Here is the input.
Amino acid sequence: MTLFISEVLGEHHSLEEFESDQPELDRWLKQEARGAHTQGMARVTVWCEPDSGVVVAFFAITPTQISPDGISRSARGGYSSPIPGYLIAKLALAKSMTGRGFGGELLLDALETVSAAANAGSGRLVVVDSIDDRAYEFYRHHGFTPIGETLRLFAHIPDVTASIAAGRYGPKSCEEIS
Here is the structure.
């Protein structure tokens, strides 16, 4: 499996060649990502091959407030007002990378970023707005829970953090590791 560098979007990254199966995401990356990133609207992370600034995947994350409608009381932590969290606003792979397991790895990279932000600050949920039914099924496959009858799904950040830790260190708790 080819290794890719995951880094914050910079001026040296080449975006023009990026082509996913979603023209809307391609256009956003090429025309709006740098502005959204530099203006603090979203944190954009890209994958590129080592020693190349050519982008082969990306995601954008932004803090958000999530309506409690359609979310169980336990998942919302008793909140009846908007719940603090993060939105994975964009997530895309180049067409040449699809079908090889990179989508799950890209999502994991995004979730690690969300987990670190939530641990440094706060946030209870991470949400995604699926662009289509295929994306919806991708997020369902990776443990996200639907919100009502929409294409929006969520995951509980403490569960995401525990899953990442279990994946890296095995099923033991952090207390057992130290």
Remarks:
- The domain at 5-177 is CATH 3.40.630.30 (Aminopeptidase).
- The chain is about 35% helix and 25% strand.
- Residues 173-178 have pLDDT under 50 and may be disordered.
